[in-house]
Amino acid sequence: MAAKDRDTLPDAVKPTHYQVSLRDLQLGGSWGYNGVVKIAAKVNRSTKEVVLNVKEIEIQAAVVTGEDGTQLAKASDFTYDKKSERVTLKFPEELTAPSVQLSIDFTGTMNNAMAGFYRSKYKPVVEPAADTPKEDDFHYMLSTQFESCDARRAFPCFDEPNLKSTFDFEIEVPKGQTVISNMPVASERDGSHSGLKFVSFERTPVMSTYLLAWAVGDFDYVEAMTQRKYQGKSIPVRVYTTRGLKDQARFALECAHRTVDYFSEVFEIEYPLPKADLLAVHEFAMGAMENWGLITYRTTAVLFDEAKSDTRYKNRIAYVVAH
Fold first, then answer.
1. For the segment 228-241, what is each residue's pLDDT rounded down to a tens digit?
2. Are 197 and 233 in a shared domain?
């Protein structure tokens, strides 16, 4: 299909890097959150408008600065097109600098639709951490599902697979909760009050928006190291579950770390990331999702109870993990 036959975003501005920061998560009730995304971008031609993708996101403010941090323009109007899932940011001045940073304040919702940044309910098998999100009779974990075009449901972005960028991600969560993302944790710092912390992650490789991922929950994990060396060292392979289920992840773990090595040898392409995480998600629309460095699965595709599960499910788990 030729590009002219597709309804793609205008090419006046092209992203190169995102800094995504989420805070003030309402873990119950509205399930809302606040965020800031800073997008480094190349300006291909002068323009007074920047068009991005959004869905169920409300923009509060948008400012464009130059490479030196000088403010160049502030958005005077936001126009939403819900059908095309876009927002047009209108500026009073032409954007002419070749490189800019677009900073957007926004609000979003951790929905229950298994798309975007969403919540999954479950009943814990052991006593969870005290600050695990809970509403009515259920506890909750949080995770993302962005393929094919639901990153726009978590933060404003140029949500087309050819518009690849690097990503920095951080999120404010309760101190008793675990956060994982595509890359290893870079740092932690105190949050806006004593019960919260900010967790920041290392920068990702260049990739599409639909491969960005993160998850928050009362997690535990099992771990194995690859036998092969990658850039001189073995890498950790982990399978994360909610607390009390990690022993059911051991078969998937055995498959996973061997599969990383096997495919690296067969395809003669070295696994490029410093870790490989798998996560069992309690409510999940797919069998699995190949987010780079954080692969998400429905529980039945990754957990096996040696005492209760039919041995035929081992074939299913091995197949899905390898896929």
1. 999 999 999 999 99
2. no
